[in-house]
Design brief:
Elements lengths: L4 E5 L10 H9 L2 E6 L7 H6 L8 E6 L6 H20 L4 E5 L8 H12 L5 E4 L4 H8 L11 E4 L6 H7 L2 E4 L6 H10 L4 E5 L7 E3 L14 E5 L5
Parallel strand pairs: 1-4, 1-5, 2-3, 2-4, 6-7
Antiparallel strand pairs: 7-10, 8-9, 8-10
Helix pairs in contact: 3-4
The structure holds S-adenosylmethionine.
Length: about 230
């Protein structure tokens, strides 16, 4: 009998923000699949979940590089799905860990698609997690959006950022680490205030209200920017 495949959101960093449901699954699942972008890097998702793993749980490290090369990515997702399927076929259930929530910019979605291509009959359960930007807003006790205001979530910064800053009262800018100089310039050109949060919920957490103080600094990949209502 095939094992069951779980996609587990482990939250943004604080192990206390892992849901009871995710903890319940981790308690019994014999194989935990962990995406790793570089062989020498520790997995943040695994660190968050570590205290909930069942004794003797097998850690299946999947090499999922951070690249925009579509051929390399397709091959990595396929290889990851095949390794997961080997475990499922042997009767073991597998939990794939993902930072924050699995439905938001997560490799889980791509690996799941490949897995369904290999074995459409596999039973799948996705357990939501607290997404990073909800945790960042909670960290400073500020709203993401109020009343009937829209909220724009951007996975990356592009040439339309200025346009969006004019149109939207509330924005979440994710994956900002490579574009800080450009973001700072656009914020000041459009008179917008922003809040920078890095590694929210972890011991390395940083909250910065004055973006210009980050000029020239190397910014952690696990960082985002919340932009509040215009003029505030
Ligand atoms: C590939 S996306 C994953 C998003 C994740 N699935 C979620 O629900 O938040 C990675 C981006 O999420 C944001 N992020 C994830 N964890 C974070 C944290 N603890 N603090 C601040 N930003 C975080 C950063 O913008 C990072 O570049």
């Amino acid at each position: 009998m095939l094992g069951k495949f779980y996609g587990l959101g482990v939250g943004p960093g604080d192990p206390k923000l892992l849901t009871l449901k995710a903890a319940e699954v981790l308690k019994f699942v014999p194989v935990v699949a962990v995406p790793k972008s570089r062989a020498d890097r520790d997995s943040v998702a695994l660190d968050i979940a570590r205290n909930h793993l069942s004794p003797g749980a097998e850690i299946l490290e999947l090499n999922l590089p951070m690249t925009s090369d579509p051929v390399v990515l397709e091959m990595a997702w396929q290889a990851g799905a095949e390794r997961i399927f080997d475990k499922l076929q042997a009767g073991s259930s597998v939990a794939f860990l993902t930072i924050g929530d699995p439905s938001l910019y997560s490799t889980y979605q791509y690996v799941l698609e490949k897995l369904k291509g290999i074995a459409p009959e596999v039973e799948v359960e996705t357990v939501p997690g607290i997404t990073s930007f909800a945790a960042c807003a909670a960290r400073v006790s500020e709203p993401l959006a109020s009343g009937d205001e829209p909220l724009l979530v951007l996975p990356a910064v592009d040439e339309k950022l200025g346009e969006y800053l004019e149109q939207f009262p509330n924005l979440v800018l994710m994956k900002v680490s490579r574009d800080m100089e450009r973001i700072m310039a656009e914020m000041s050109a459009h008179g917008r205030q922003a809040l920078f949060v890095s590694r929210c919920g972890s011991p390395q957490e940083a909250v910065v209200r004055d973006l210009s103080s980050l000029a020239g600094e190397k910014v952690d990949y696990l960082s985002l920017i919340l932009v509040g209502p215009k003029g505030e």
